[in-house]
Amino acid sequence: MTDERLSIVDIFKIGVGPSSSHTLGPWRAAQQSLARWGEAPGLAGLRAIEVHLYGSLAKTGRGHGTDIAVIAGLLGADPETCDMTDVQTQAHQALAEHAITLADGARIGLQVHFHTRESLPTHPNGMRFDAQWTDGRRDAITCFSVGGGFVAWESDPRPPRAAATLPFPVDTAEDLLRWCRDADLTVADVVLANEAAWRPEAETRAFIARVWQVMRACMYRGCHTPGQLPGGLHVRRRAADLNARLLGAAAVPDLDAWFTAIAAGGHDFAWTLDWVTAFALAVNEENACFGRVVTAPTNGAAGVVPAVLAYDVVFGKGPADADRVVRFMLAASEVGCLFKKGATISAAMGGCQAEIGVSSAMAAAGLTEVNGGSPSQVLMAAEIAMEHHLGLTCDPVGGLVQIPCIERNTMGAIKAITASQLAMASDPANARVSLDAVIHTMWTTAQDMSAKYKETADGGLALHIPLSLSEC
Ligand code: SF4
Questions:
Q1: Is 394 a pocket residue for ligand 1 (Cβ < 6 Å)?
Q2: Which ligand 1 atom lies nearest to the CA of residue 355?
Q3: Distance (Å, rounded) from C-alpha 315 to C-alpha 176?
Q4: Would you call 132 exposed, middle or buried from its count of C-beta atoms within 10 A (0-12, 13-18, 19+)?
């Protein structure tokens, strides 16, 4: 499963909820399909587009807003910056009118089909975009949303992204460890040096600062937005309740003051635990509402990394400066890359172990890195975190990224902290399980897992809680 060279910008993507594979991926696929037709044969005379969604995308696409996402992509909306309320309004109108106005002003026909009984052979998250022109020409583009917002194309006439020559090429955890040992560098040092093959170091640092700012804003918004989540499950938002219980009902006016107020509460175990929980809940409640979040490595698991980083910033031992955030994110991103290369970060391929399990491993690595863990301890922390997520199924109730997803992020965050502390207290020389072994185990477990536990809402909690899908 070795992939192209992956960078931190591939793992942390700013976008909107609720799902990287069912929202962000289809959004980008629609955007890029339209761009490809724009290059050739051109959009002049384009009469209609039909979007066909297959497999997991069809089964849980309505709950994940896949139809909204593909329309947003066709509208040319940028998931990093768009006004989501406006986009949703336009998308619902397009669905109702079976027509869409493209960015160039052309009005064309539009149909979105959910093929719930069909899957494409290559991948469970298949899409086909069919275009027709007024002169009778037709073209079809088939692609796959392969997790974390990545899109794979059945055929792509465009030249592949130029392969960067990395000073420390890494395909496995063993490669990473060897580079760290040979060059006497930390995990974050190795990743930062590799990132410099794509862009100047200052740009990488600025990118991380932007990502952290979006994560912080998301936690703050989530902790100050009460109410109910959309979709019909009537799930109550709990981050704001928790925030009010812990800090009082009066909203703290801004983000920095909010972190300061939380830190002033001290280091009591219950207080700290409540805040890690609140941070994770907040992100994933925002995610469930089409809010702006960062894939880490996916949307469904977007709360784990920010919750653990916020835990370190607010309650940690070190100076909570920009460099600490950078080193956390670099180590975390590399672990995400290792899982994408050696296994999968797609729930449709590997169940929830591929989402919450990977995010927990990423966060454990980041936390260990900033607390001065050796490279072996950083990888050991990631290994421990994943080891105790192996086999975790994906069974979102009603196809919505709410139950069990939101709470599951709190568990992933706590496991990451425990894994990091265990690794910091251990001698990796005595470890019996390597990170590469656990990545391989996750992948073989994914292959053995029944399709009903891979983001299809056909098994597990999705069937066995006292709610009927008619409520959604
Ligand atoms: S159960 Fe896990 S993998 Fe599935 S949608 Fe929820 S968070 Fe994602």
A1: yes
A2: 3
A3: 29
A4: middle
- 301 in ligand 1 pocket by Cβ < 6 Å? yes
Q: Report the nearest-CA residue for atom 4 of ligand 1.
A: 394
Report domain 21-153's class.
alpha beta
Assigned token pair, 417 = 């902290």
Enumerate the domain spans of the chain.
21-153, 173-471
Q: Count Cβ atoms below 10 Å from residue 162 Cβ, excluding itself.
A: 8
Q: What are the tokens at 323? A: 């460099």
CA atoms within 13 A on the CB side of 359: 34
Which of the listed residues 393, 401, 454 should we mutate to test ligand 1's pocket, taking the one with most ligand atoms within 8 A of CB? 401
Q: How far, in Å, is the centroid of ligand 1 from the Cα of 368?
A: 25
Nearest CA to ligand 1 atom 2: 352
Distance CA 307, CA 361 (A): 13
Q: Is the CB of 148 under 6 A from ligand 1?
A: no
- Would you state the structure tokens that stand for residue 200, as one six-digit string? 């100047």
Specify whether the CB–CB gap between 287 and 299 falls below 8 A.
yes
Q: State the virtual CA torsion across 224, 293, 306, 199 in degrees, nearest 10.
A: -140
Burial class (CB in 10 A: 0-12, 13-18, 19+), 153: middle
Query: Is the pLDDT assigned to residue 469 strictly greater than 70?
Result: no
> Residue 457: CB within 6 Å of ligand 1?
no
Residue nearest to atom 3 of ligand 1 (CA): 352
Q: Residues 6 or more apart from 172 whose CB is under 8 A from it?
A: 338, 341, 342, 436
Amino acid at position 339, single letter: F
Query: Quick check: 364 and 384 in contact, CB under 8 A?
Result: yes
pLDDT in tens, 21-71: 999 999 999 999 999 999 999 999 999 999 999 999 999 899 889 999 999
At 155, is the pLDDT very low, low, confident or very high (cuts 50, 70, 90)?
confident
pTM to 2 decimal places:
0.93
